[in-house]
Every structure is written in C-alpha cells, then in structure tokens.
C-alpha cells in the first residue's frame, strides 16, 4: 500500500527515533512509503531558520538510497488544496493533506488536527 509520509515521521525514521511507533516503522520496510517535495521544502525552511539541524541534500540522498518513492506536485494537488477548509494553517501540512486527498493515499502523521479533513490517517506514534 502506498502511504504518504509527513516530515516528522520521515525525520523520526531517519534518526531511528523511539517516537516512531512500531507499526509506523514497518511502513518504511513493508509498505510503499511515498515522500513529497513538500517534506524537503519544510526541512529546508526549518533548517534555514535554525529550528532544525538537518541537511536537505543528505536527507534527499538517503531517500533515494533507501528507494523511497517520490511524489511530485501536480495541478490536481493544487485544485485539492484550493478547496480545503482552514482547519489547519500550516502550509506544509495543507499541501500534504491535498496530496493525500487527490491521490487517495493515507498520510502517516502524528498531527491529530489533520484528521478533521476526513483523509485516511495512520498515526506515526503507533
């Protein structure tokens, strides 16, 4: 099953963090995790603001090395984004929600606010 991965879940997996639950960890080995450029965009912004210590080129290299699928941003995603209600203001999460909706793909996340959008959610802490 293809599963869209949010930034936090990807970072937890890359850092082998205990915060990533066992079920979520299996997604990276048993399912088909999908990474959006939105994740790299968020990492780049937060790193440039000093909120995160990460190297986008290294993250990108590991994503490729691990064979994770990449999902581009399409017009369908923008159309979905435009129609989303403003339950959530975070632009990175909103784009991931739109991609999840447009692709009919569950989103792996720990953000409970995202459930208000009615998309399929998999809790990254479990």
CATH class: Alpha Beta
Largest sheet: 5 strands, parallel
How many distinct helices? Answer: 6
Shape: globular
* Mean residue pLDDT: 96
Distance between the termini: 17 Å
Total beta strand runs: 5
CATH architectural designation: 3-Layer(aba) Sandwich
Radius of gyration: 14 Å
How much helicity do the residues have? 40-55%
CATH homologous superfamily (4th level) name: 5'-nuclease
Q: Which percent range describes the beta-strand content?
A: 5-15%
| CATH-defined topology | Rossmann fold
Which regions contain 5 or more consecutive residues with pLDDT less than 50?
A: none
Structure notes:
This protein has 126 residues and is an alpha/beta fold. The protein has one domain (2-123): 3-Layer(aba) Sandwich (Rossmann fold), CATH 3.40.50. 48% of the residues lie in helices and 13% in strands. The protein has helices spanning 7-14, 22-30, 37-48, 56-65, 75-83, 91-103; strands at residues 2-5, 32-35, 69-70, 107-109, 121-123. Strands 3-2-1-4-5 form a five-stranded parallel β-sheet, sandwiched between helices. Helix 5 crosses helix 6. The longest helix is centred in the C-terminal third of the chain and has 13 residues, at 91-103. The chain is globular. The relative contact order is 0.23.
């Amino acid at each position: 099953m293809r599963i869209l991965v949010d930034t936090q879940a990807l970072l937890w997996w890359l850092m082998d963090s205990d915060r990533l639950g066992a079920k979520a960890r299996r997604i990276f080995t048993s399912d088909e995790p999908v990474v959006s450029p939105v994740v790299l965009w968020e990492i780049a912004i937060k790193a440039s603001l000093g909120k995160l210590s990460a190297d986008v080129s290294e993250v990108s290299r590991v994503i490729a090395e691990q064979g994770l699928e990449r999902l581009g941003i399409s017009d369908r995603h923008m159309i979905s984004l435009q129609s989303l209600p403003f339950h959530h203001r975070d632009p990175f999460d909103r784009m991931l929600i739109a991609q999840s909706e447009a692709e009919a793909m569950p989103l792996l996340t720990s953000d409970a606010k995202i459930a208000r959008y009615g998309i399929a959610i998999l809790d990254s802490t479990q």
